[in-house]
Amino acid sequence: MAFEDRYGLTLSTTSSEAASAYREGMDLLLAAWTGAAEAFEQAIAADPDFALAHIARARIHTFYQQGDVARKKAALARELVARNGDERERTHVETLALAVEGQLPAALSSALKHIDAHPRDAIVMSLPMGAFGLFAFSGMADHDQARVDLCARYAHHYGDDWWYLYNHGWALTENNDVRNGRAVTERAFALREANANAVHALLHAMFEDGSIDDADALVDRWIPTYDRSGILHGHIRWHQALGALEHGDAARALSIYAEVLQPSVTHAPPLNAVTDGASLLWRLQAYGHAVPDGLWSEADEFAQRAFPRSSIPFADVHMALFAAATHNQAALEERLATIEKRLSEGKLPAGPVVPGLFRAMSAFADGDYRGCVTHLSPVFDEVVRIGGSHAQRTLVEDTFIVALMKSGELSRARALLDARLHRRPSPRDTRWLAQQN
Question: How many CB atoms sit inside 10 A of residue 16's CB?
Fold first, then answer.
């Protein structure tokens, strides 16, 4: 008897238990829900030769930077699929293995080729998607459009599938089609509420259309259904903290930080934990709120353990925030030297925006606001190349606006604030604009 996944693709296992556990794990993985790792482990226990279960488990290990075990599982999956898998499964495993091994350009190329041949292979199609996906971390300036194009190209293969719809909605939102993005995302959420990815995508749409209080209410209603160990639990509460800061409520933002984002309590994967923590503390400080003693140094110690060396630009830029905020010039210069070497060797697809951000953030933390403006101005329009979401990258916009205001370049600050307020309502931007008149 041949077994299939939820999308009708053949699974090379003879075990009904393994196939069932794999299908369950696949849905949990695509929903960013708890239990996916355990489901894939159950599939492996039922059929130790099931390559797709091994490579899916490897992928979850990479989320938590468990690189050695992830690479071992990827190598085993390659061996097993060569013996037992069909062509679709072999290229599925190879694509995920490249991603596990950090070969991101090769993984993106392999994923796009695989999707063209097997458009309903949702796990592979998920790789280029999202704020931390292969498109976002490719260094492309048009990665938001690339996600929209990918979703549109294969829409007829998915119809009203909850996983596809949330991806399409999020892609539209990030590409400035917020009204349609929110509508599509709401359809996805209605189809499956036990889907942290859909909630996350909906929060982004609400951020972009200024529905701050609606977003806060959504999280309050929904978050009790989502275990703290969920991969997006902390990040979803981070969105609430951003909403609190829109209203100038630093105490609530700090309370959320203490509840779920602080290194001593977080359950988030390292990349989420480091970037969410750094960006929230930086925003608090940039907006003129006091950051309690010890928070920066505690978070910095955690971050240095998680990212001791230069890695993807999105992580590096957040490591620059730690170095700048703690005035650790040696750490900043060391990482910056590595980045500039990669840039000179043509190995930094994101380009000059990365070292530009390092210098701008360092100047801002030192109170050199004119220097921050000088460093940031030439690369401001290229910030998209570092990846992440627009909501995450507004940290750079906010820093630039504050630096303009503090260095006396009020007309430029007003122009940026006016442009943002024409795009989305913002209590904070309204307050800042009023201060310039």
Answer: 12
Tell me the two tokens of residue 433: 């604009």
Number of C-beta neighbours around residue 152 at 10 A: 12
Q: 2 is written with which tokens?
A: 């041949």
3-state helix, strand, coil in the chain (%, to 5): 75, 0, 25
Give the containing element (helix H, strand E) for 128: none
Q: What SS3 class is residue 4?
A: strand
Tell me the residue type at 151.
C
Q: What is the largest CA-CA distance in the chain?
A: 74
Ramachandran angles phi, psi of 11, nearest 5°: -110, 130
pLDDT tens, 213-252?
A: 999 999 999 999 999 999 999 999 999 999 999 999 999 9
Query: Which amino acid is present at 387?
Result: G
From residue 59, alpha-carbon distances to 29, 30, 243, 253, 429 in Å are 10, 12, 32, 32, 40
Buried b (16+ CB within 10 A) or exposed e, 381-409: ebbbbbbbbbbbbbbbbbbbbbbbbbbeb
Q: What are the tens digits of pLDDT across the range 35-75?
A: 999 999 999 999 999 999 999 999 999 999 999 999 999 99
Going from the C-alpha of 141 to that of each of 2, 68, 137, 153, the distances in angstroms are: 43, 32, 10, 20
In this prediction, residue 436 carries a pLDDT of: 78
Whole-structure pTM value: 0.96
Nearest Cα residue to 427 out of 200, 205, 243, 216: 243
Which two tokens mark 25? 């794990």
**CA 154 vs CA 95, 157, 166, 249, 324: distances in Å:** 19, 6, 14, 43, 44
**Length of the chain (residues):** 437
Place of tokens 């606006």: 401
- At 193, give phi and psi (nearest 5°): -75, -25
pLDDT single digits (tens) 397-431? 999 999 999 999 999 999 999 999 999 999 999 99
